[in-house]
């Protein structure tokens, strides 16, 4: 799936949540056309509509500062009007499209990621009546869903960029470790594995490899949250490269499920069941179930034995 396709899915889901949570008959929105580095300038193109009866709003380019959405973009905060056509608090560049759809009470919530405005969500009524705090709160929550999806995708692309640049450093694992942890600056590239070298060099290599394991755990936790299927598959492929970087060829397939590997990857970094659950978006009881199942399949009696067995099987770095 392309980035544009993933954008559409994320926006569509947020609009459905907005309408369902607020009862508003119409919702629409879009993202900045200039990409994530626009810094809040440029325009938002309305790409998704929910509940609209015309296509008048589709494709509108909302410039920062113009109309209700442009005001929300400029201020980086939610804005609302009770009677759009006569409101003195906004400019009126988009009155024709709003009138064609018959909208009167309208709210707009910016999508903000790391203090950069990335888009805007709207909800609207075809009657002139105030939109209460609960309605605004639900709209803000829908915008947060889009923000989180964008954060996940940004993190995924940053990690993959770190992997892509690792070839110049001579080590895929080293590049990912620097990209995720930003630590062990020049030493990771020379870390051939957890037992590389001897003496001081071995200590540096071991420390670097721990960063690689942290990176692997972060990638495993991130991948299931990525909407873009192609990007998710690429992340999982990188996980596989990290896991097999120093592992011997697999002697047998132990049959762990992807979620069981996710849990073991977190456990391998020293995470508790509660921390693992939070990182993976699961319940602690679910994590315990996955861990018990993985231990049984690996013939392990403790968490540590399970991690060691998974590493020997080439499932973890």
Instruction: Just name the CATH architecture of the largest domain.
Output: 2-Layer Sandwich
Main CATH class of the largest domain? Alpha Beta
How are strands sequenced across the largest beta sheet?
Answer: 3-2-1-6-5-4
Topology, number of strands: 6
Helix content: 40-55%
Please tell me what the overall shape is.
elongated
Beta-strand fraction estimate: 5-15%
User: Could you give the order of the helices and strands?
Assistant: HEEEHEHEEHHHHHHHHH
Short structural summary:
The protein is α+β, with helices and mostly antiparallel strands and 317 residues long.
Overview of the structural elements:
It is a single chain. This protein is an alpha+beta fold and 317 residues long. It has 3 domains: 3-145, GAF domain (Beta-Lactamase, 2-Layer Sandwich), CATH 3.30.450.40; 165-245, no CATH class; 247-317, Orthogonal Bundle (Arc Repressor Mutant, subunit A). Helices cover 52% and strands 12% of the residues. It has 12 helices and 6 strands. The protein has helices spanning 3-22, 67-75, 95-101, 133-164, 166-169, 172-181, 199-222, 229-243, 258-268, 273-280, 284-298, 303-312; strands spanning 26-32, 43-50, 61-63, 79-81, 106-113, 116-124. Strands 3-2-1-6-5-4 form a 6-stranded antiparallel beta sheet, with helices on both faces. Strand 5 and strand 6 form a beta hairpin. The longest helix has 32 residues, at 133-164.
């Amino acid at each position: 799936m392309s980035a544009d396709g993933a954008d559409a899915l994320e926006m569509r889901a947020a609009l459905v949540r907005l309408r369902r949570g607020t009862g508003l008959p119409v919702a629409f929105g879009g993202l900045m056309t200039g990409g994530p580095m626009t810094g809040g300038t440029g325009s938002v193109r309305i790409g998704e509509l929910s509940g609209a009866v015309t296509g008048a709003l589709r494709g509108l380019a909302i410039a920062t500062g113009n109309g209700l959405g442009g005001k929300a973009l400029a201020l980086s905060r939610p804005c609302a009007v009770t009677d759009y056509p006569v409101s003195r608090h906004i400019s009126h560049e988009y009155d024709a499209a709003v009138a064609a759809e018959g909208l009167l009470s309208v709210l707009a919530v910016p999508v903000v990621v790391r203090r950069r405005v990335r888009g805007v969500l709207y909800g609207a009524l075809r009657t002139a009546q105030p939109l209460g705090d609960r309605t605004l709160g639900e709209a803000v929550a829908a915008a947060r869903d889009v923000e989180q999806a964008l954060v996940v995708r940004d993190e995924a692309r940053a990690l993959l960029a770190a992997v892509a640049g690792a070839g110049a450093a001579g080590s895929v694992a080293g590049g990912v470790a620097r990209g995720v942890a930003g630590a062990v600056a020049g030493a990771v590239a020379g870390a051939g594995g957890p037992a590389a070298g001897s003496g001081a060099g071995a200590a540096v290599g071991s420390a670097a490899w721990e960063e690689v394991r942290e990176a692997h755990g972060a990638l495993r936790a991130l991948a299931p949250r990525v909407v873009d299927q192609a990007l998710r598959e690429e992340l999982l492929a990188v996980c596989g490269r990290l896991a097999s970087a120093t592992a011997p060829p697999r002697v047998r397939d132990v049959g762990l499920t992807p979620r069981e590997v996710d849990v073991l990857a977190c456990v391998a970094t020293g995470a508790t069941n509660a921390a693992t659950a939070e990182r993976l978006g699961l319940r602690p009881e679910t994590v315990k179930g996955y861990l018990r199942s993985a231990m049984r399949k690996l013939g392990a009696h403790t968490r540590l034995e399970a991690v060691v067995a998974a590493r020997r099987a080439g499932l973890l770095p």
